[in-house]
């Protein structure tokens, strides 16, 4: 790795950030951190020097997740098109469906077995909780205002969740899902969005099984609606990767983040802020696996892309990546 080359002094963290914000023609280009390709992320180079440490790394806080907010209006048309396509696929034979599924797989070889992240939704239990709306309350709404009501409830839940009141947020989101499923069915973009938020909230409450179930169901719905290559699918995978890492499943976490970054790079380009988020998540996975070489590169790449993407210096991904680099510099010094 570049920061381990003999007789070569590593850049300090402030210098690294300054360098990444310079133009390509600046002197800093000579010390620029190399971009990490998907192939590099997918496998380890046995010829690279590994760091051997006798002590465990310091503990670090990590459960970074972004709350999903509004569905963009232009996505509604794409949802309808996706639903129409899914109906056509259901009419095909099982063999044809298998061929279509294989053709939709990402180039990344690890992505060929990602079905382990997916769970078909079973939301009946949400209609039977103490927070559930009665049938009469739901049917008071019309199809014209049900979507608006569901989104309004999602915003109320977000307000509570961002204030740390996860339990009440989940109760409100349950009501939103009830309304949306009643009028539009389980395979709706807003249903997937709210399930993703519920999964994050359950994770922050250390309710792993509940969190995993909701995030997997959200991923299933999004793949049905949008196909494999969509930023919403990547967002679900990112959330799943963070959840798995928080509960010690480092290998599966890495796989989820690798699939997410493959989608984001393909759809958004290599220098988008969401690609930086993925590099940060991959860095944490490598860190917990004690692969400090790879972790350093990922945090550095997250920092570089964050600067290119114009994220503010106090953004949590920049702060977190800098902290990761500082801890790793202490470990290898």
TrEMBL record:
Q: Name one Pfam family in it.
A: TPR_12
Could you tell me which residues the TPR repeats occupy? 276-309
Question: Which keywords does this Swiss-Prot/TrEMBL entry list?
Answer: Repeat, TPR repeat
Bias type Basic and acidic residues, positions: 40-51
PROSITE patterns attached to this UniProt entry: TPR
Q: Which InterPro entries match?
A: TPR-like_helical_dom_sf (IPR011990), TPR_rpt (IPR019734)
Q: Return the protein name.
A: Kinesin light chain
Q: What organism does the record attribute this protein to?
A: Eucampia antarctica
